[in-house]
């Protein structure tokens, strides 16, 4: 396995980030963590590449690979997730599950970078939706729930009324 250096990874990340106008504050750090859940890229003595998430001094995710393409996919999956949900927030449709817009935007961004990454992410979305289907009325239900709570109704009654007015419709897929 040819050794890959930090400079090469940083250069490749910056080149790809430019293609999608990714904000610099979403790009990973190298060697040392900023501690704020920004991805950290490490290279060990064997040349293995590590994608690490550390928040408040505690590591809560570490993925290891010897494949630069896989590392770049992990990096840009995270970056495009952030960008896609920011886009969704600016383009929110009240009676649509926010993931409908965000997932589409993420696939669009990844397609600019690498079609294989885009397909892989689409498969990830399908897996998420198997366990957590789209629920287009969740936002409206939450708003109504808060309104009822402010009126002082008991939790059981609030939940019953909210789901009666805005039932789950979540068996739709991508």
Describe this entry's structure for a reader:
With 174 residues, the chain is an alpha+beta fold. The chain has one domain. Helix content is 54%, strand content 12%. It has 6 helices and 4 strands. Strands 1-2-3-4 form a 4-stranded mixed beta sheet, covered by helices on one side. A hairpin with a 2-residue loop joins strand 3 and strand 4. Helix 1 runs parallel beside helix 2 and helix 3 runs antiparallel to helix 4. The chain is elongated and about 60 Å long. The two termini are 38 Å apart.
Distance between the termini: 38 Å
Average predicted local confidence, pLDDT = 92
Number of E strands? 4
Overall spatial form = elongated
Number of helices: 6
Summarize the amount of helix as a percent range: 40-55%
Largest sheet entry:
4 strands, mixed
Rg, please?
A: 20 Å
Order of helices and strands: HEEEEHHHHH
What structural class do the secondary elements suggest? alpha+beta
Share of β-strand residues: 5-15%
């Amino acid at each position: 396995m040819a050794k890959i250096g930090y400079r090469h990874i940083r250069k490749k990340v910056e080149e790809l980030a430019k293609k999608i106008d990714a904000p610099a504050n979403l790009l990973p750090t190298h060697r040392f963590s900023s501690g704020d859940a920004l991805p950290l890229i490490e290279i060990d003595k064997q040349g293995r590449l590590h994608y690490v998430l550390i928040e408040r001094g505690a590591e809560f995710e570490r993925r290891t690979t010897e494949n630069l393409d896989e590392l770049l996919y992990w990096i840009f999956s995270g970056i495009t997730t952030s960008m896609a949900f920011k886009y969704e927030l600016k383009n929110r449709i009240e009676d649509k599950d926010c993931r409908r817009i965000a997932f589409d935007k993420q696939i669009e961004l990844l397609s600019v970078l690498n079609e294989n990454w885009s397909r892989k992410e689409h498969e990830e979305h399908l897996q998420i939706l198997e366990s957590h289907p789209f629920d287009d009325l969740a936002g409206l239900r939450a708003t109504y729930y808060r309104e009822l709570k402010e009126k002082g109704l008991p939790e059981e009654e609030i939940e019953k009324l909210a789901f009666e007015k805005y039932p789950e419709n979540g068996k739709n897929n991508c």
